[in-house]
Amino acid sequence: GQFEKLPLTETAKDEIGEMGSTFNEMMELLEENYRKQEEFVSNASHELKTPLTVISSYAKLLQRQGMEDPAIAEESLAAIRMETERMNSLIEQLLHIARRSETQLELANVNLPEVLGQTVKVMQTSFNREFRLIGGQQAIVVKTDVPKLKQLLYILLDNARKYSSDRIEVIVKNEGAPTIQIRDFGIGIPKESLPFVFERFYRVDKARSRDSGGFGLGLSLAKQLADALHAELEIESIENMGTTVSIVFSGDFNVQPVNLKQEGLR
Ligand code: ADP
């Protein structure tokens, strides 16, 4: 195979033997990484191919019958537009995943309730849904990268919106650590699926998630963003009851004064 391991005997306990087993552990890690990359490329290609197939067959239909039948023309064009948008959104998400290591953090001291207020307002206007902001009467200042935090919030708020129909609660508090919680009262996630939701391309219900436009990349991107921001992402969910996702800022990193950029509160 690609990742040859050293044939080690059980008795190789000297330094050379130790180096050998370290080497083998490295090979195992490389192999696992390589396998994951392959799986990622194969998943991404598959997801891109699906809308292309739809676009191609509607284009054929349009060419054959679109001139005589306006209804068919209309239907084909609508489908082509929708699938183009889906492809676009997938490519954007893939680019975000790929750009991970390139972008640098732009840190500033920010008041969490203020950032949340702005984000919630945008969501509220875009989707005409109720997002109820709870807490945040007092300032909760963390050191963070605002565009990245907003991107993270949009992913979580969008999921809450997609998978529930009732109000969505956005809770901000500072009990032990600055924390944001996004809580919905929607369909929830089955217990057996919960461990996998942060994996790329994982969807609990492919058909349902596809209807709402998802590729199963949102939460893996959210995790990536949270890691970059030194925050923990926790998810709790009960099927048919709802889901709560918490962003917990770490005391060490996020609650220290910024000395890189002295621009104060934003
Ligand atoms: P998607 O883009 O498909 O929503 P995500 O990576 O954001 O993908 O989420 C992975 C899966 O986890 C989703 O397909 C959905 O099944 C489930 N999920 C995520 N958030 C919620 C939520 N708030 N309520 C119920 N299910 C959720």
Automatic annotation (TrEMBL):
Domain HAMP: 1-35
Catalytic activity: ATP + protein L-histidine = ADP + protein N-phospho-L-histidine
GO cellular component, one term: plasma membrane
Enzyme Commission designation: 2.7.13.3
Transmembrane helix found in the keyword field: yes
The Histidine kinase domain, residue ranges: 43-253
Annotated localization: Cell membrane
Recorded topology in the membrane: Multi-pass membrane protein
Entry keywords, A to Z: ATP-binding, Cell membrane, Kinase, Membrane, Nucleotide-binding, Phosphoprotein, Transferase, Transmembrane, Transmembrane helix, Two-component regulatory system
MF (Gene Ontology): ATP binding; phosphorelay sensor kinase activity
Keyword check for Transmembrane: yes
Name of the protein described by the UniProt record: histidine kinase
Organism for this UniProt entry: Planococcus koreensis
First and last residues shown, out of full length: 192 to 457 of 457
